[in-house]
Amino acid sequence: MTETHSPAPAVAGLRVISPEQWGADLGLVQGGTFREMVGPASGAQRRSMHHVRIDPAGTTVPLRHDGEAVYYVVEGTPVVTELLRHRRDSHRLAPGSMIHLHAGATYAIESDQGAVLIGGPCPVDPALGAAAAPYLEESRLSVYHRDRPGLMVPFISRDARLVVWLGAGAVDANMNYVVLEPGERNKEHVHAESEDTIHILEGRGTAENVSTGERFPIGPGDTVHIEIGTWHAVAADRGERVVSVGGPCPADTDMLRAAGVDVADIMEKIGR
């Protein structure tokens, strides 16, 4: 196999996006930045992922999407507030928290001490940052934590946690937390109808485009975007523990069935 050094160029099916390749600030944070890592600029349609930095006393503008959204708290203890028609519901978050918003929820994220989050709408929201109203009557926001997973998927890794996933009602906006110990590698796999996005929080390893035989070194801050139908794997093959968040969007029901999940029962429960 050939090896390409980071930052990697786009290739058929897989791209590694380094921090130097993030998009410009979208102007959605008053006191901070909101930058695209994966989205329209990288050719994504079903998953967007942004780097959201909120400075002390900063806040996002009110946000609302026609689809779902999901965020992971990397640093800080921000507050997410859902803006409802007759009240506001606020939640103080900790590092490792995940926020899932159903379609139509209006929300803002603020921080008194500063915070960093990773995430965004799924599918891609072409009107990101447009007017947030009208507000909903009932809450459409849920808070989770990486240490309280809904499902473990051992063929991804010995510590692969599905946190915001189909079983929690997330059809389009999923967020997994995956730890690869040194020497560990995913079983190579493919998503027939989902884009996969993997953001590296810590550690150095290799992202493999199994479909083309190419290998790309990855490290903290890199984001791997995998197109639909591309066989791929991630390996912790550089002597370090690799920790990432992300996952396929929409939910990969074939993968869930392979993990023993009764997908039909879940879909019936959530009205799909």
Can you characterise this structure?
The structure is a single chain. Strands 3, 4, 5, 6, 7, 8, 9, 10, 11 and 12 form a ten-stranded antiparallel β-sheet that branches. Strands 2-19-16-21-15-14-13 form a seven-stranded antiparallel β-sheet, with no helix packed on it. It has a four-stranded mixed β-sheet with strand order 1-18-17-20, with no helix packed on it. The protein has 272 residues and is mainly beta. It has helices at residues 253-258, 263-269; strands at residues 2-3, 14-17, 29-38, 49-60, 63-64, 68-75, 79-83, 88-92, 97-101, 106-111, 115-122, 141-145, 151-152, 159-164, 175-180, 195-202, 205-209, 214-218, 223-226, 232-235, 242-249. Strand 13 (151-152) and strand 14 form a beta hairpin. It is built from two helices and 21 strands.
SSE layout:
Blueprint: E1 2-3, E2 14-17, E3 29-38, E4 49-60, E5 63-64, E6 68-75, E7 79-83, E8 88-92, E9 97-101, E10 106-111, E11 115-122, E12 141-145, E13 151-152, E14 159-164, E15 175-180, E16 195-202, E17 205-209, E18 214-218, E19 223-226, E20 232-235, E21 242-249, H1 253-258, H2 263-269
Parallel strand pairs: 1-18
Antiparallel strand pairs: 2-19, 3-4, 4-10, 4-11, 5-10, 6-9, 6-11, 7-8, 7-10, 9-12, 13-14, 14-15, 15-21, 16-19, 16-21, 17-18, 17-20
